[in-house]
Amino acid sequence: MRADVLLLVFLLLTGCAAPPLRGTGDLGVVVERATGSLQVVDTTHGTSLGRIEGLGDLSHASVSFSRDGRHAYVFGRDGGLSRVDLLTRRVTHRVIQGGNSIGGAISQDGRLIAVANYTPGGVRIFAAEDLRLLADIPAVGADGRPSKVVGLVDAPGQRFVFSLFEAGEIWVADLADAQRPVLHKYLNVGREPYDGMISADGRFYAAGLFGEDGVALLDLWHPEAGVRRVLAGVGRKGEKLPVFKMPHLEGWANTGNLLVLPEVGRHEVVLADARNWQEIARVPVAGQVVFAVASPTGRHVWLNFALPHNDTVQVLDVETRRIVATLKPGRAVLHMEFTPRGEAVWLSCRDDDAVRIYDPITFRRLGELPAASPSGIFFTARANRIGL
Amino acid sequence: MLGLGALPCAVQAMPDAARRDALVRLVRNDCGSCHGLRLTGGLGPPLTPAALGDRPAAALVQTIQQGRPGTAMPPWRELLSDDEAAWIVEQLQAGFPDAR
Fold first, then answer.
1. Among A6-20, A158-172, A175-189, which stretch is predicted with the lowest mean pLDDT?
2. In this structure, are residues A64 and A82 in contact, taking their beta carbons and an 8 Å threshold?
3. Does the ipTM exceed 0.90?
4. Is A196 helix (H, G, I), strand (E, B) or coil?
5. Residues B36, A59: C-beta atoms closer than 8 Å
6. Least CB–CB distance from A34: residue in B26, B67, B99
């Protein structure tokens, strides 16, 4: 009798301590911006599995995933870098690695985490398994001035690519030896690169320029050819509308051979040929686009907008180049994330404290989850994509 | 009444409670996307009392309403009245309240 009770207690204790036996391919996280927490969500059931707290200032936070999809690396604005376990829903490691950071990336082999910092400007490299510091790359431009680092992405060949805002440079860091980064610097790429993206195949790195028109483009298949200027018509030239929020280039939707880019200071998206980076067409839209996110099917691109149009989402059909739906999902729609095969899209509605799930074919709402000032939504399918 | 004339930036018409909440959210979230949720700086400079405390309020109101040409700071006059901008400056210089 006594032994039975002990056995039961033992089983209960060990049962509670072990993470549930399940995969993570249908999991993701929702950043709760104001409270510094994450919710772990299940996209199969449209449910929240729980909350992870104590992650610091998560304004403008972004997330990358380990290649096994179990751990999320959270890059916070306060310089905090956290590694969280989606199954146990605990913070396994956390370091305050800089004063003011803007994002990060995971290496091609999954062993390295890179974090971009504003102050002091630079990139720091950490071991993915325990966040120990491996290398520090201060961002001092050719003119000797320290720069903020923006647009940090991973690239094939165990490399990271990023831009220096003040110096106007693009750097490629080769981390074949993680403790001895080899830097290739491209100078005078344009005034004030403010964000960067890498194409889904890892070939092209593009930096948007705030200080002048056009896009700085580096072909990583031919790095010896240097950085060239493309899409000269994209930019803020002349008197334009105020930009209350800068577009995110990570959101440049790549659908087959077509790129869809938010224009800066105009209520338009630019369609460009992804093979030669030539502008094809422009489509008028409801406001200043922040994110342009392609459905995994490639047929539609969902657009959200800066103030005062941040209650609106539009859907662009890339075949007809027409807006096929205009939705009002809620107040302050900050981010959109498709499930891996695109049967649903999740929208964060910050000022309604809700995440709303939509059917991307019928545009009907499928469900809703409560969340405290939700901003970024990140699903684990990102683990298997270059540049995310 | 007499005192008001000497303070060109004194808030003439204080926003009502609901609007004040909306303004706090706007500053925390939308200004915060460049200046940091805690307003300690990001791509834009810090908006803390230490950074702004001794700057003339009228100049700060002008920066909000007209922006800073040549930088990422947009003019906010389309979204804010001058009185609302003055109220925001007053709060920033005193230590900005948290969103509800």
1. A6-20
2. no
3. no
4. strand
5. yes
6. B99
